[in-house]
Amino acid sequence: MASTSRTQADVNRTAVLARLGARGNASRADLARELNLSPALLTQLTRDLLREGLIEELEQSSSNGGRPARLLGLVSRNFTALGVKVAPDHVAMVEVGIDGEVVRSVTRPFEAVSPLATSTLVELVTQFIAEGTGTRVLGVGVGLPGNVAEQGVGIVDSTQLGWNQVPLGEILRRALNLPVVVENNVNALSAAERLYGQGRQHDDVLVVTVGNGVGAGLIAGGVLVRGRAGGAGDLGHVPVREDGPLCQCGNRGCLEAVIGQAALVNDARSIRLIGTAETIDDLRALADAGNAGAAEIFGNAGHVFGRALAGAINLFDPAIVVLLGEGVQAWPHWAPTFERALRSALVPGKRGTPVVVESWQDDRWAQGAAALVLATPFDADGVAGEQGRLVRERMVASAEATA
């Protein structure tokens, strides 16, 4: 329980910095109200941040007759974090401010299966840093599909990328001379939702992504659940069809082997609805144009997905489900069958669980990875290891240089 309380405080401290960075100076009362924190807790959080030299007390705000409130502000905004999303065929990179907003972004082609993949990744990130804004970079967060036992170590196992025990964290740290944290991409996205998204208002959130794969990030009691080796939330590998199609993990009938984008494209090609050179975008365009066969493929996927997600909701009992990813671009064609299958498979007490579908841009993955860096200065549980301490030192140094 103590560990959970410390981690919750870490998130809240980061949220205070993000709020001050996003909307400027604020009183303690304003911060407590907007972040849904008790005045006593907010006072303790700001006391810690003042002692650490990250925020400062400023002029008093105007009053309507009561005692004027003293405003709080950031000591320095002169630092950013980099986020890198690694996919099998491309890399998306963003630079974000303390408020989590994207300052700049870029996407580059990438071949994860290439023997030179890690060297190419180093070159791409190095170039992105060199083209930067000139602010102080706190560190680099990397999100990718796969298992990462420890963020601060960053050894990667990924069937999607074809990587086995790749020491990505060490490689990037040595080349960039910056703190680097590495995490499963859905976990990283969940961290961003907890800090900046709809998850900010809830302590128990299920973040689910659908696209090339299917993944889930679980926030329980305000804390991201990583599991024994960072592999919690592997929803895409829940078996849904006995003797179903072969999954990239080697098993048959996994959820993502049935409803992932590659599976939907294969289904469409098998009935000659699209050609061998056409993609999920072409299949979606057919459905948008009213093609019944294309709509049926998405509809079948929505049904299977709805039942699988109902199982996860029944198991974890989240206050809200946030659904996003590349696949939501076709959500109008998933939604009718998904909603019916979901609600009918939920137990009565959970049938009202809200499912929020967010719009999607590819740099959201990378923004999630950058959020890992912004959270590490307050990583009391040591998930980021030595990297959290190094990020914090850089943040304090940036503040002192500005003072």
TrEMBL record:
Transmembrane segments: none annotated. Residues 13-56 form the HTH marR-type domain. InterPro entries: ATPase_NBD, HTH_MarR-typ, ROK, ROK_cs, WH-like_DNA-bd_sf, WH_DNA-bd_sf. Gene3D superfamilies: 3.30.420.40, Winged helix-like DNA-binding domain superfamily/Winged helix DNA-binding domain. It holds the Pfam family ROK. SUPFAM superfamilies: Actin-like ATPase domain, Winged helix' DNA-binding domain. Belongs to the ROK (NagC/XylR) family. This is ROK family transcriptional regulator. It comes from Microbacterium flavum.
